[in-house]
Every structure is written in C-alpha cells, then in structure tokens.
Amino acid sequence: EDQVTQSPEALRLQEGESSSLNCSYTVSGLRGLFWYRQDPGKGPEFLFTLYSAGEEKEKERLKATLTKKESFLHITAPKPEDSATYLCAVQAGNYGQNFVFGPGTRLSVLP
Amino acid sequence: GAGVSQSPSNKVTEKGKDVELRCDPISGHTALYWYRQSLGQGLEFLIYFQGNSAPDKSGLPSDRFSAERTGGSVSTLTIQRTQQEDSAVYLCASSLGARPQHFGDGTRLSIL
After folding, report:
1. CA of B80, closest CA in chain A: separation in Å?
2. Which of A31, A98, B33, B62 is in Cβ range 3.0-4.6 Å of A93 for a Cys bridge?
3. Rg of chain B, C-alpha, whole Å
4. What is the predicted pLDDT for the residue at A81?
5. What is the mean pLDDT of residues B66-86?
6. Is B102 on the interface with A (CB under 8 A)?
7. CA B26 to CA B8: how far, in whole Å?
8. Which one of B24, B35, B37, B43 would you mutate to disrupt binding with A, by most A Cβ within 10 Å of its Cβ?
9. Residue A94, pLDDT score
10. Which residues in chain A are closer than 8 Å to B91, comparing Cβ atoms?
C-alpha cells in the first residue's frame, strides 16, 4: 500500500533559524512528488514537483530535494510569513489520480 | 479570478439532511478532484474526474456520497443523510492532465 509520512508533526523556529522538513514515502512506481503550502482556512498552494532521485528545486527560501525513499524541504533563514502547514504528496502507479498526501508539518516561525 | 472556486465556503446543517457542495475548476483543466480534510489529518481522496472518462470513485466512503461533473466543467459533491462524522473541510482541485493540482479554499461542513 502506498504511504506517505512527514516529520516532524510540528516545528517551531526562530526567525533566521534554518531547518528541514522530511517526507518519507513507500510507493509502487513513483510518478512525481509534490510539495504544497497550506495556510489556515485556505486550500493547499502548489510549491514544487520532483520527478526523480537527485532532483532539486528552489523558490526563494525553500529548496526541495528527492531521494529514492524521501524528500526534504529545506527552509533557509525563515521569516514569520513562512509559517504554514507544509504538505507532501506522491503520485504513484501507471494511470489515474493515485495521489497520496502526507499529514503535513505545521511550521511556526517566531519573530 | 482564475483560480478554483468552491461554494458555499461554510455550511452548517442538521444530521440527516442532504448537502450539495459546488466546485468551479480553472477553465480548460481536464482533471478535477475532490478531497476531504479532517482536523489535523491529511487529505483523503474522494473522487477523480478526467475528461470524458468514467470517474474514479474509489475514495468515496459510502453510498451516501456521490459526485457529478457537468459539461466537463462544474462539479457537485452530494452527501445524503449527513452524519456527524461527515464534518470536515471538502477541497476541490483541478489540473491540466497530469500537471500539479490547483486547490480551492474548500467548503467547511459542520453537521449538528
């Protein structure tokens, strides 16, 4: 069964304190791994797609990396506005929707 | 706006009533998804529409749940004889083929 776990469940950082969020997955036939940001009361907002091990994507203070078993979302010098829940999802299988979402990491960045 | 639109944004109803939730996807997006998000939980897949193909209903939790997509655009998720465990945020997303999904802000459903 395809599974996605995320750690930590919650993370509190001081402004400027860099850290990483983890997404571990077990799937049959990874087609893509997706990172989303979700603010309270809002729908998830797409950040990155990664397709193969070794791939990296960057956007402002965020950098996503992918290995065969997990993905990391590195946050460099975070600001309070980076506070949100970060969701990881994998798309697996040969067809159809087959997206599996992780439970998310709640990030709080304190000024 | 050009994003995914969902209505109503909030819905409070009594146990046993039927509810309809609406999703207007991004124009031209061929794929449409419904998810359910309970407090502190990940997104739970409900149903997927792709073009004119038969929908993937494998995530619907019971036969009280149904969805349709008219004209390849607007979709309605219907929950019949609502139960308290149906309380959640119902999210709709659309995408162009296999590209990343774009989400609406959801309908917050509360069953009294």
Report:
1. 24
2. A98
3. 13
4. 97
5. 94
6. yes
7. 17
8. B43
9. 57
10. 43-44
Q: What is the pLDDT of residue B16?
A: 97
Cβ proximity of B55 and B63 under 8 Å: no
Residue A95 · residue B97 · CB < 8 Å: no
Beta bridge partners of B55: none
* Radius of gyration, alpha carbons of chain A: 14
Q: Do A41 and B105 touch (CB under 8 A)?
A: yes
Which residues in chain B have their CB less than 8 angstroms from residue A31's CB? 98
The mean per-residue pLDDT over the stretch A34-48 comes to 95
Average pLDDT over residues B23-45: 91
Tokens standing for residue A58: 């960057």
Specify the pLDDT at position A31.
87
Looking at residue A28, its pLDDT comes to: 81
What are the b/e assignments for B68-105, b being 16+ CB within 10 Å? ebeeeeebebebeebeeebbbbbbbbbbeeeebbbbbb
pLDDT at B40 over 80: no
In the block, residue with structure tokens 């969701």: A87
Distance CA B57, CA B64 (A): 12
